[in-house]
């Protein structure tokens, strides 16, 4: 958010106008590239309290597709 707000402020102070609709994605990308760095991500994990980061916490089975546990469909009585 800080990078986006900073980019918006920079454009406003440079041009005297807010970002035009057709430029939002381009300007967002500039802000994203400035902010989306390994250091920033690691600091966010630490600040959230989910630290130390342990990528091995989840196994491949945790990411596997879910298994159906019922053969009966559950629909509301109002469903046609």
Largest sheet: none
H/E series: HHH
Give the low-pLDDT segments: none
**Could you give the count of β-strands?**
0
Structural class: mainly alpha
Mean pLDDT across the residues is 85
Oligomer type: single chain
What share of the residues lie within helices? 40-55%
- Outline type: flat
**End-to-end Cα distance:** 45 Å
Strand-residue proportion? under 5%
Number of helices: 3
Rg, rounded, reads 22 Å
Can you tell me about this structure?
This protein is mostly helical. The protein has a domain at 1-10 and 19-50. The chain is 46% helix and 0% strand. It has 3 helices and no strands. The longest helix has 14 residues, at 2-15. The protein is flat and about 60 Å long. The termini are far apart. The model has no long low-confidence stretch (mean pLDDT 85).
Features:
single chain, mainly alpha, 46% helix, 3 helices, 80 residues
Topology:
Layout lengths: L1 H14 L8 H12 L2 H11 L32
What is the structure about, briefly put?
With 80 residues, this protein is an all-alpha fold.
